[in-house]
Known about the structure:
Order of helices and strands: HHHHEEHEEHEHEHHH
Amino acid sequence: MFDTMIRVFSPYQLNPFNFNPLRQVLEQHVDFDRLRHTNGIHVHLCATNVETGKVRIFNRGELSADVVLASACLPQLFQTIEIDGSHYWDGGYIGNPAIFPLIYNSKSCDVVIVHINPIVRRGVPRTAPEIMNRINEISFNSSLMREMRAIAFVTRLISSGKVDGNDMKQMLIHSIRDDEAMTAHSVASKLNPDWQFLCTLRDSGRDTTERWLRAHFDDIGTRSTVDLEAEFL
C-alpha cells in the first residue's frame, strides 16, 4: 500500500514538514567536525544535482549531515536536500558508486566494489512491482556499468601498448557480490526495517566478504579478480 501511495503522492504532500528521522540519528552519532579534520581518511559521497543532472562529489572536508542525506535522498521518499543553493537527490542516479574519485585521488590501483543491488536477475518480471524493481536495479547499476566499460577500454589500450602505462592509470577491479542471495528477497524487502531481517543481511554480507577474502586476498595489488569484458561489456 505504501508503494502505491508514493507513486501517487510526492514527499512534499506526504511529509509537508520535511521530517527526516535519519538526520537526528546522524547528528547524534557522527562527529562530522572531527571527521572533516581527520587526516588519513578519504571519503567521497556522491549526489545528483536535481536541476543540472550532474554528479557532485563531496569530499571529507565537506562532510555534514546534509551531505549524507543528499547522497541517500530517494525522491519518492524525501524532499530534496539543499546545499549551497543547489538541490540534490541520491547519487546513485549518476554514480553508484562513482569510481572516478578513486582513480584520480588515490595512490592505490585497487578498487573493491561491494554490490547491494544484483546485476543479474534471471527470469522476466511479470507483476508491476517486479517490473519497477528491475527497472530500479538496472537504473542504479547503469552508471557503474559505464565506468567499468571505460576502465576496460583503458586497460585494453595499456595492455596492447597503445597507451603508456605511466600516462594512464591501470586499475585492478574486485567485486564482492552475491546476486543469488540478493535476488531471493522480494521488492517489499527494500522497505523492511525489521531488526532480525537487517541482521540477516549483515551476516550474509560478512559471510560473502569472508569467502571473497579467502579466495582473492593475495590478488589485491597484483591483478583484477573481475573479468571486466565478460561482466560489463
